[in-house]
Amino acid sequence: MTVSSSSVPVVVRRRTQADRSAVTRGKVVQATVMLLQTQGYAATTVQRIAKTAGVSLGALQHQFPTKAQVMAMVLRHYAVKRARLYRRALSMKGSPEERVDAMLDTMWRLVTDGPEFLATVEIELARRSDPDLEAATAPVLARIDQFMTRWLSGQRMVTPDPRFVELRLLNSALLRGMAVERARGVPLEDLARSFDVWRQFSRAQFLRIAGRQD
């Protein structure tokens, strides 16, 4: 399609089906995250998601036939965002100390910057009583865990030291717990002080495993 002006024609690209699908997915992600944070998993039905997203139920179910598939898509979206944040934080960090500090700063940001982390906690908690959700999200969560372990170790192309798996689990448990405490209304400054205590412990352990401390 060409729109003419007095001098220079302007070409306006028509939106493709892929463009429209991407817009729908974005709306569905935002709506699902908001509902999970404010209403919880059980109340976040596909009907409510469609209404909140401003899309038809048919359009939503065309891309995501089940609620479990919607939730898996939300986890994938957040995993991509998390990976982007870690890559950006660590891209210019050379020493193990710099990498650990950048990683811990990013962890704190994940918990405190918006509702998405709490939404993922809601999804993960619901898996224990929803077999369909467990099956749909298990591959996504496994990839997230693998990614986190390799980034923590700084060894993305080889098998990391098993101790980094333990530290990844501890850090993940801490972040989930802090998200729950935020939802309970614990003041952010109190959580920040607690995180600083964890930061000192976690930093020492990472560097010890990396061979930089005794």
TrEMBL record:
Span of domain HTH tetR-type: 22-82
GO molecular function, one term: transcription cis-regulatory region binding
Gene3D superfamilies: Tetracycline Repressor, domain 2
Top-level taxon: Bacteria
Phylogenetic lineage: Bacteria, Pseudomonadati, Pseudomonadota, Alphaproteobacteria, Acetobacterales
Name under which the protein is recorded: HTH tetR-type domain-containing protein
DNA-binding positions: 45-64
UniProtKB keywords: DNA-binding, Transcription, Transcription regulation
